Amino acid sequence: MAGRFDLETTTLGTLLDDPDARSIIVELVPELPDHPMIGFAKGMPAAAVLKMAGGQIPADVVEQLQTRIAAL
């Protein structure tokens, strides 16, 4: 069974508005919800935001985010 969210199409804003997804994001990347560019990034698919973050978020953290959010 597929999870509630597809990071390729679900916006970062949708994830931040969902309490379960937000708690995962805050746990793994606590600075993300308050990042100065968050207003711009909220309308973008989460996968695109993660790609844009490049080396700012370690690859293992990105993998954990993807795995845990996909499991919701």
Distance between the termini: 10 Å
Mass-distribution shape: globular
Q: What is the strand tally?
A: 0
Oligomer: single chain
Query: Helix segment count?
Result: 5
Estimate the mean pLDDT confidence: 91
Largest sheet: none
Structural class: mainly alpha
Q: What percentage of the residues does DSSP assign to strands (E)? A: under 5%
Could you walk me through the main structural features you see in this protein, from its secondary elements to its overall organization?
With about 70 residues, this protein is mainly alpha-helical. Helices cover about 55% and strands about 0% of the residues. The protein has helices spanning about 10-15, 20-30, 40, 45-55, 60-70. Helix 2 (about 20-30) packs antiparallel against helix 5. The protein is globular, with a radius of gyration of 11 Å. The termini are close together. The model has no long low-confidence stretch (mean pLDDT about 90).
Topology record:
Elements: H1 12-17, H2 19-28, H3 38-41, H4 46-53, H5 59-70
Helix pairs in contact: 2-5
Overview in brief:
The chain is an all-alpha fold and 72 residues long.
Features of the shown structure:
72 residues; mainly alpha; 5 helices; 0% strand
